[in-house]
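Work Package 3 (structural annotation) set out to generate three-dimensional models for the target panel prioritized at the project kickoff. During this period the team completed the workflow that converts sequence records into discrete structure tokens, so that structures can be stored uniformly alongside our sequence database. As a representative example, we reproduce one entry of 450 residues exactly as it appears in the project archive.
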Amino acid sequence: MDIRNAALLAACISSFLTPFIGSATNVALPSIGREFEVDAITLGWVATSYLLAAGMFSVPFGRIADIKGRKKVFVAGLATFTLGSVLSAIAPSAESLIVFRVLQGISGAMIFATAVAILTSVYPPAKRGKAIGINTGAVYTGLSLGPFLGGYLTQNFGWRCVFLFNGFLGILGLLISLLYLKEEWADAREERFDLLGSVIYALMLLSLIYGFSEFKVPFLIAGFILLFAFLIYESRREYPVFEVRLLKRNLTFSLSSLAALLNYAATFAVGFLMSLYLQYIKGFDAQQAGLILISQPVIMALFAPFSGWLSDRIEPRVVASAGMAATTLSLFLFTGITMETDLKMIIANLMFLGFGLALFSSPNTNAIMNSVERKFFGIASATVATMRLVGQTLSMALVMFVFSLFIGRAEITPEYYPQLIQSAKLSFTIFTALCFVGIFASLGRGKVRT
């Protein structure tokens, strides 16, 4: 097996297992909530803790990978991710499960920050879009199988088997990486790691996301102060953990990153909301809900390689912007959801959402990676991952904030079903607005090709 195929296979396995556990956990959340008897907001933190930890550490690990070696960080991430999966499977309480999900998130950051960077290192520019498209297809395949397989495992063997299965996938990916990835990539080997900048960055994200999701004003204020300090500090560093100057001088990079952030912030919590809706409002079990939810990522998996291939031939902004527009329309259609909404309409709209996301994601990633020079591949890959993770975390934080307005810290019982519907409608309205703004960020990025 040559180095390109080996890198693609390793990246696809890792890119499959990390979204798989996210989408599978969403389906398992009602079962976890019943076993541990926790409220809706704590249940949300089971999902959000993983995303928050991954977002906090993606950029620092992307920088470490550029300096010390992308393969080293990638392999270490797979090993630790496997450990976190096994520990999550044996968690004795909701609190311990959240802690183990944090460990999964930290190790997931090591994978997110390096997988696309390794692909970009071994594939020439003319073939990157296709490789990234295949890798994106693996992401969406993980998202596809997550609801179906997660629902099946939860329904028949219990939610803990979801994490055990993920641990098995981690071992498989680790073995392939150790056996076939013989090279190392470290294009910033002579540069220094910015520890203080990494700490400020992590604390900034923690303060902003926690403050927003729990509506803690002091944390929000601290988060914005840290954001301002981070931007100033990083712009003056010779070797920053995040190349802030890229955002200033590279319009394609900055607007593509913003478009990704808005897209994920507007769409990630759809799976969470619809899992609760289908199981609580419609009365489906976890396996049935998973079969319905699979309709979205299946379409994403089918069309992502095509959109990546297409972005090698025409401007990525054209394809990505069309995808963002389709996504906006699908979210707008969800704002009319009620207890009586026909199941066929839900499935059709989930498929339409999947199509829009497939058109957006691969071309947008291709635009980001092609807009930077080689020594920034790691940080660009980490930026792609961070925009995704921060967007996903913001998406969940928005939903938890809306839940706090309508439901509060209460278990979701039949008396709260009307409030659950109100929460979903308001959440989808906010998501539609975010995605609409994202259309203009996508269109404004400029040309990748001269």
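The chain has a mean pLDDT of 85.
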